[in-house]
Design goal:
F-type ATPases have 2 components, CF(1) - the catalytic core - and CF(0) - the membrane proton channel. CF(1) has five subunits: alpha(3), beta(3), gamma(1), delta(1), epsilon(1). CF(0) has three main subunits: a, b and c. This protein is α+β, with helices and mostly antiparallel strands and 123 residues long. It contains 2 helices and 7 strands, in the order βββββββαα. It has a 5-stranded mixed β-barrel with strand order 1-2-5-6-7.
């Protein structure tokens, strides 16, 4: 099976680095799927988006992201997010409260966290 090196990085931390068979990300141009051999590109991540990938040695991973960029080169996919959290780290009650916040950033992060949680449950 072909694979591609993937890095998922937020401003606060490195979330994951390894190889995957596919990466999907929600960008300003729409949801993009990246397979090995994809043309090089640079995309802007949406403010309350979800990134998924299937590691070559494990189960599908899902993360909520807030802004940033997706960079695809011949050798690597880099997701550089302003903020990111794994779906399995989401506190659903807190995310639901955040999604109702008057603060735009908090609300957007809460919405992204809930979307990632729903996507992770899809299987």
């Amino acid at each position: 099976m072909a694979d591609i090196t993937v890095e998922l990085v937020s401003v606060e931390r490195m979330l994951w680095s390894g190889t995957a068979s596919i990466v999907t990300a929600e960008t300003a141009e729409g949801e993009i799927g990246v397979l090995p051999g994809h043309e090089p590109m640079l995309g802007q991540l949406v403010d309350n988006g979800v990134v998924t990938f299937r590691p070559t040695d494990g189960d599908r991973r899902v993360a909520a992201v807030q802004g940033g960029f997706l960079s695809v080169t011949d050798e690597k996919v880099t997701v550089l997010a302003d903020w990111a959290i794994w779906a399995n780290e989401v506190d659903e009650k807190q995310a639901t409260e955040d999604a109702q916040s008057d603060n735009e950033l908090t609300r957007s992060q809460g919405e992204a966290a809930l979307r990632a949680l729903r996507r992770s449950r899809e299987g």
